[in-house]
Structure formats: C-alpha cells, structure tokens
Design a protein that fits this description.
- α5 links the parallel β3 and β4.
- This protein has 157 residues and is mainly α.
- It starts with a strand and ends in a 14-residue tail after the last helix.
- The chain folds into two domains: 58 residues, no CATH class; 66 residues, no CATH class.
C-alpha cells in the first residue's frame, strides 16, 4: 500500500530545518515545486510525491542526507555505510542477493580506508541467486507508469 498524502506538519518540520540552515522557506517551496498555499493549515496534506521532492531538494541544497533535520550534516552515502557497518558488526558472515545495487550501496566502500574493526571483518557475498526472476520483477515494477519511485531522484540527475 502506497501512502498518497503526507500531513503538512512534516513539510513544516523540513521548512523549519531549512530555515535554521539559512534557507528561505518560500524559496525552498518554490525550488521543490510546492505551492505555499497548500501548506497553510495544520490539517492539510500534500502529495507524497511533493514531500519526497521537498526532502530531495533539501538534501541537495544542504548537501545533507538527512535534509537538515540533525544537528550536523550527514554526507551522502552515510546511511548505506551505517547499514554495511551494522552487517559487519552483527557477525553476519554471508550475504545472498539476487540483483546488484546499481547505485553501489555499502559495497562501494573502500575497505582499506576503514578502521581496523570494520576492515578486518570478512563477509562472503553470494551473488545472482534467482537473478533472472529478480530482474523480471524489477522490470515489471519499474515498467508500470503509475510507479514514480525514481521520479526526481538523485539517481536520475
């Protein structure tokens, strides 16, 4: 089930974060293609696509993966790195996947640059389990015109 709308409370939270980082909220809304009249009341809602666009806009403008919501900026890729670190620290020794992450994910990490705690861990990666079936599912999913998962994403820039 896809969530089609988001309460404006969340939009306003992002706008407050943007303002705290020196951005003009009206300009942010304009940059994210959101009409400021849409967020006038506390009980109004915006489309989830508009909210995603706002968050992505702030991530790019602030160079912050968390769109200005945390005390310090977070470099792009930090979340993927944290996930990779969690896998290493939890003792998971084998990862099985069907289809490679075309954006790299945590696998783009240069292990020689990591602290010894992470660098010395080994993980066996078994690729391409049911890859053809997985690719067929991806093709069906992303071939659906109603699916806007990647629309306006950093991947498309």
């Amino acid at each position: 089930m896809e969530i089609s709308t988001v309460p404006t409370h969340y939009v306003n939270t992002l706008l407050r974060a943007a303002q705290q980082h020196g951005l003009n909220p009206e300009q942010v809304l304009h940059g994210a293609h959101i009409d400021s009249a849409l967020i006038a009341g506390d009980r109004t809602r915006v489309s989830s696509a508009s909210f995603r666009q706002l968050a992505k806009y702030l991530m790019v403008e602030l160079q912050d993966e968390n769109a200005g919501l945390l005390a310090h900026r977070t470099k792009r890729g930090s979340f993927a790195m944290m996930c990779y670190a969690a896998i290493l620290l939890s003792g998971i020794g084998t990862i099985v996947y069907a289809y490679e992450d075309v954006m790299g994910g945590g696998t783009n990490c240069e292990k020689s640059m990591l602290a010894p705690l992470y660098r010395e861990r080994t993980v066996e990666i078994i690729p391409h389990i049911k890859r053809d079936e997985s690719l067929a599912l991806f093709k069906t999913f992303f071939g659906n015109n109603r699916n806007n998962y990647w629309e306006n994403s950093l991947r498309n820039e």
